[in-house]
What does this fold into?
Amino acid sequence: MTVLVLLEPRCKLTDSNLTTVSAAARLARRLGVELHAVWPGKKVEDQLALLAGLGIRCLHSVEDGVLPQFSHEAWVPFLADLARFLETRLIVAPSSALGKAWCAALAARLGAELVQDCTALEAAGDGTPLVEKPLYAGKIVAALRLVDSPALVTLRPNTVPLERTGEETPDIQFHSIPASNGLCIIQDVVWFAAGTVELAEARVVVAGGRGLGGPENWPLLRDLCDVLGAALGASRAVVDAGWIDQAHQVGQTGKTVSPDLYIACGISGTIQHLAGMRRAGKVVAINKDPAAEIFRHCDYGIVGDLHEVVPALTRELKARRQPVA
Ligand SMILES: Cc1cc2nc3c(=O)[nH]c(=O)nc-3n(C[C@H](O)[C@H](O)[C@H](O)COP(=O)(O)OP(=O)(O)OC[C@H]3O[C@@H](n4cnc5c(N)ncnc54)[C@H](O)[C@@H]3O)c2cc1C
It folds into this structure.
């Protein structure tokens, strides 16, 4: 029996891939089974240093270039066969667009149960995998036992800590698979990110809402992002208004973020927005309406006009970063 992790073929493995491995490794230890992982990209050797000490026994890959990196048609049958061959108890992937899509297709192919978007992965007293999943825009958290085998789980970024226990690297096993004669041909992959810091993985997020007044005012928040090394988030109202791209949207129909610090600027705090950021460590809200709902969900509230508060905050943070002579 094994636990199997699906990694994302990114230029560099992100924190959410590595923490997914950590969570799966803890479970594998509890079950007393081996942890295996699949690298569905090229140059598997380049990933070994990042994956050292995470408890992976074997890293599975196919010869470079044989399977196109993002092709469902090519990868899903291979993953299903591998999971069967390894007698996999649980398949775990990051809760990213690719992780969720592959797990859905794999669950259908394996006839297995799947829980997407989980925030915790543990083992119950009898060794049954146990997950937590927020429901109803995060109003309740369901604890679910995954009784059937195999089962599949996707985990949200930043919800479990990264644990390295040594420096040992996984063995690599190459698989040779005939090239797919499928209908889908991937010609090119263009990476699109909502800024230099990946929103879903950021430790600090500065987010703007309708209180910003218009798209011409984003530089106010971008300056604050620069000084904090933060990613820029947005409410759906400003995305719908065309002030910023949807890649920045936080909330029920946008991205879920779990940073250490979330600064909400001119955001009222509707349930749909809170659904995307309620797992932030500390929340700072800046709003000119003292009765705004967001103040009921923050650790620090600043009642004021963001056009005055945000530049003052940025100036102060910059000043504090100046080396003392
Ligand atoms: C099915 C569904 C899914 C949804 N999904 C999402 C989602 O994923 N994410 C999301 O965000 N929303 C989502 N929404 C929309 C959500 O209900 C709200 O409409 C939206 O979040 C409001 O955005 P906002 O807070 O920017 O705007 P508003 O609610 O208009 O709030 C603006 C705030 O700015 C304050 N303000 C105004 N001027 C200033 C100033 N100068 N300085 C400081 N404060 C100021 C105001 O007091 C107000 O509190 C969804 C809605 C539905 C129905």
Remarks:
- Helices lie at 15-31, 48-51, 72-85, 97-110, 218-228, 236-240, 271-277, 306-321.
- Residues 209-211, 235-238, 249-254, 266-268, 270, 272-273, 276, 286-289, 292, 305-307 surround flavin-adenine dinucleotide (CB under 6 Å).
- Residues 67 and 74 are 6 Å apart (CA to CA).
- DSSP finds eight helices and 15 strands in the chain.
